Amino acid sequence: MNKKGFTLTELIAVIVLLGILATLVIPNLIDLGDGAKKKLYDAKIEKVLSASYKYGKENIDSISGECTEVSIGELISSGYLEGDDKIRENLINPLTNESMNNTIICLSYKDGDIVTNLKN
To answer: Nearest CA to 100 among 35, 45, 43?
Structure first.
């Protein structure tokens, strides 16, 4: 009698090895996605701060006190920043997939230059 195929022991060994590989690989793949989202978020924040700096330079007379607030939505509607949704009116947070338009940037004038910070 010709035996073709695998024994039950061989099949179980392969399944166990595949399970071990999956437990090692899948968490690393998930971390790669989170890392990419964080880098994209950081790049968007840099873009927002750059746009708010330009806004502050061009509207320096309106900056008063320690913090003049401007929202991302205001920067978009004023043309200093472009949204990244289909209609270009919302900046989307890649970490939460929610609009960042209500996020406030604090502009101040120190040592002869504009300082921009995200307001928490």
So the answer is: 45
Indicate whether this model's pTM tops 0.85.
no
Q: What is the pLDDT along the chain (120 residues), one digit of tens a residue?
A: 567 788 999 999 999 999 999 888 888 777 777 788 899 999 999 999 999 999 999 988 888 778 899 999 999 999 999 888 778 888 999 889 899 999 999 999 888 888 898 886
Secondary structure of the chain in HEC code, one letter for each residue: CCCCCCCHHHHHHHHHHHHHHHHHHHHHHHHHHHHHHHHHHHHHHHHHHHHHHHHHHHCHHHCCCCCEEEEHHHHHHCCCCCCCCCCCCCCECCCCCCECCCCEEEEEEECCEEEEEECC
